[in-house]
Write the structure tokens for this entry.
Amino acid sequence: MPFHFRLTPSAGFALALAFATAAPAPTMAAEEPPAPEPRPLSFVNDIAPILTKADCNTGACHAKAITGQRGFRLSLLGFETEEDYEHIVKEGRGRRVFPPAPEQSLLLLKAANIVPHGGGKKLDPDSEGYRTLVRWIGEGMPYGDAADPEIASLEVEPARMTMSPGATQQLKVTARYSDGSARDVTGMALYEANDRDMAEADGGGLVKTLDLPGKVAVMVRYSGLVSVSNISIPLGAPVEAVPPSKNFIDDLVFANLKEIGIPPSPVADDATFLRRVSLDIAGRLPSTEETAAFLASTDPDKRDRAIDALLATPDYADYFANKWTALLKNKREEAADITANFAFHAWMRDSLLANAPYDEIVRQILGATGTIVSNPPVAWYKRVKEPNQQLEDVAQLFLGVRMNCAQCHHHPFERWSQNDYYALSAFFTQVGRKPTAIAGEDLIFHKRGLAQVDDKKTGGKVRPAGLGQTPPEILPDEDPRLVLADWMGGKENPFFAKALVNRYWKHFFKRGLVEPEDDLRDSNPATNPELLDALAAHFIESGFDLKEIVRAIARSHAYQLSERPNGHNAIDRQNFSHFYPKRLPAEVLLDAIDGLTGAKTDFADLPPGTRAIALPDNSYNRAAPFLKVFGRPEGASVCECERVQSSSLAQSLHLMNSAEVKGKLSAAGGRAERLSKPEVPVADGVREIYLAAFGREPSGEELSVAEEFLNQPRTDAKNQPVAPALAKRMAYEDLLWAIMNTKEFLYNH
């Protein structure tokens, strides 16, 4: 039987006493303080970030517009936490969350892919996020209350750093709250580089730079806030000399190149400069007379004088009116539109020719009232009729802010909310219109009343307000559009001037300081922010003088650099260490071919000799196949991306084989016919063609090859000799054809 030993109380005391006297008393260990109680969980601060990190509430998953995914809907990136809470806790017949056994909640079973999940495995059961969800469900899914701290700011470290190509750097992200507390959220934040060819970031915030030098930003997103880590990737080559500085643009461009170690190319020669600046300011090639006179001049200021002369020509107004009317949707959709389109285009051209201040041009468009005949800027309201579309176009075109996303949800990469969207649209709520006796024409007027708009989500009223501004007091008799124009043109506006100078910088340099040119936001910083600020300040100080911003850019040596890279800067694509060649726009190229061949393109309803850059609307794209093939925009959007600048097989075939191009080469009275006359020396003919096409004299080798080709006898399809006069003309046509198919002709360089 088992043996049990039991001590009596007296025996136990005696035994304890014996042990106590036989050995020294042990030292008592100090009591450890009790572990702090875990802080209460909040759906906003703790759960929503987990869902965002797990990619549950993106547009491709449960945040799909309207429907969500398989009956489960979340707000985009968790911006609507109250709605998300309702969907998680109160839908799904109690299966989505199950407090008695949290691990059996469908929310977790699906996320861990224990139950088949179309999105795959999003959470590992060993992860912190999974454990936090288990705890939250077990605690009864608290939403939190008004006393909970709110996230106030998001900080990323390092905020600015220099990294060599191929290096790695771990980011640290800290969320700071309204109660003064802070939380390390590095593992729960989202990371994205704005240029994935320059850097990449993994889910844990480890950044790796790639091989391209320059400036790149890593966007960090957490709980509705965005922060940015700006990274410089230096090439590290010695920059021993730079061209002399002409103005503040050169100071800042060359300082940046020195900082990142990219030596600039030298300044381009006179011939290249004149061709480049003529194309960029006037939308045309320089004439042979202009080129000859410029190359022969010894005036040290001849480049500045050439810029001023181009700005004074109607060609400048034609070219930039072509740019602006396309962006302002001067589009012909029916025959009756012709009056409005012609009037609006003429008004814009005249405004540019007279150098009307940019803020005044915008003000006249926004605040337009009356009829098209009496006030042509009214034509914009003929094309853009709805307040929502009006605000989106105005924000993108004049402020460089894309507000489209904020109509339905908080902007995913910016601070703009739905309320900001409605506040901006409220400026246009009092635009009235009524038909006139003229078919297709409206009378635009200001309707008396309080400007406000219904917030479709809350049902409340939203008053007009500029982005980031407190709603101003607008009286019922006051046109809110003029208040908007006042705010936009104010010196303190952080968007208006920057949007314009960035757009013009791209016009001259092929890419903007911010790219895309109409997407200015904290999470998409400029490659040279100091230069963008300086350009905007100069533009404001000039009184919003459009010609002055063109003049400042064109006079800079940064703009006048050679397109030929040196041994170090060939891979640079954002620091402007050399000129970036760009294909001629469709209209400019058509005019250039006409100028080279001596032909003319006729356009309906326009005087003979009208150039393609002076066309008032998109309707001529259908009449001129060349314009369509080479990507002239239709004016359907305010985005310059509508203009096709890439090359295609269709373009190459059109230049080589189209009847349109062949007809220009053989045009009666054209250059080929004129130069083939016996009294014109072949060498003079070749020089004229090179001056017309390239703005330069032919090299010795080019002249020799061309002369030999032009003097060769020719045979017809039956191998019979062609008469010398005809043979010479055909040879000139072939030479012109070969010239217009070269990259030197097709590109501005």
Notes: The CA atoms of residues 282 and 313 lie 8 Å apart. The two ends are 107 Å apart (CA to CA). The first helix runs from residue 9 to 22. Residues 43-138 form one domain.
